[in-house]
Please model this.
Amino acid sequence: MNTIDLVELGRTFTGNCDKPTLLYQDDQHTIYWLGVPEISAFRCNTYLIIDGKEAIIVDPGGRGAFEFVKMRVTQILAPEKITALIVCHQDPDVAASMVDWLTTNPAIKIITSVRTNILLHHYGKSNYSFVNINENPLYLFESGKKLRFCEAPFLHFPGAFTTWDETSGFLFSGDIWASIDLEWRLVVEDFVRHEMKMNLFHLDYMASNIAAKGFVSSIRNVAVNAILPQHGSILPKKHVVKALEYLQNLKCGLDLIYPADPPSYIPCQVGRN
Ligand SMILES: [Fe+2]
Ligand SMILES: [Fe+2]
Model:
């Protein structure tokens, strides 16, 4: 049972990124928000799940963020104790610091999809222990607690996936439900206002309504207690149903670029000289 009320946490949060913020805690299992290194509209969240001796970073971040994230981890445990990274897709703001974490501890496991893993090698390290979420959609902690990986094709990468922590019910959603926001809050209060901030990201990045609806349908049996995206604010339980409806009804990407059926293509401008 979580001892943290996320709605209350959002109301009292002062914006302090000098220390990790506890989001979930029970006897054996804790989850932290490690803060954001940059004050910008496009803030990148990094999370840490600790279960017994295992410590997994979700969305570790870019190389420029590494020292910041490492400092936050050090306030909780030695960085060498990090056992795995969950990398929901290969974008540099999610994944690039994996090479720094592998330097810190070469035994760190990289938990990701096959399509993501192929591209991760281009950051400069390929000799690591790869946990394939497509073949192993369940991750079992030594305690017996579980993570479930839910594939999210084309939201926005073909090999993108989300991670549901069974213990907390938290869904680490990567770029899904991400928002762009100068008046950022840790936890969403007003969902209607927040929709506009999610639109700024989703309309351009997410592939189509078919992809969005397909994902919503694939997680219909997952009991989500909160949504923790890689950008923007956390959605507490009271907003989860509305967040699912938002995605179900989302028109984005190809729906907007090619609204007609069959699509009317705009000819590419070709120089005449
Ligand atoms: Fe991305
Ligand atoms: Fe992202």
